[in-house]
Amino acid sequence: MVNDLLTLPLAQRLDGFLADGELQVETLHSGSIRLKVYGVERTLVDCFRHCRRLGMAPVLEALKDAINQRRLNVDELWCQAQAQRMQRVMTLELEALL
Question: SS3 of 84, please?
């Protein structure tokens, strides 16, 4: 088992450790194509993760948009932040907006 795990590429090894249900990933099949659809909370946490590339303005705009449209579950957002280790990064912005 361990030897099989070591021979896999890194992405496949990480997929085995993270439960898809925990990270809000839904896999849909359309013919031979496999699509991954992510939830709103997961997408926002990913935006915060890549805020240096995206800039803080679009990230905050996405967060405000989700709050205004009432599509955001704050408890689920915090669970996603914990699962992806982004709580410290998101704390100040969440406290300011909520």
Answer: coil
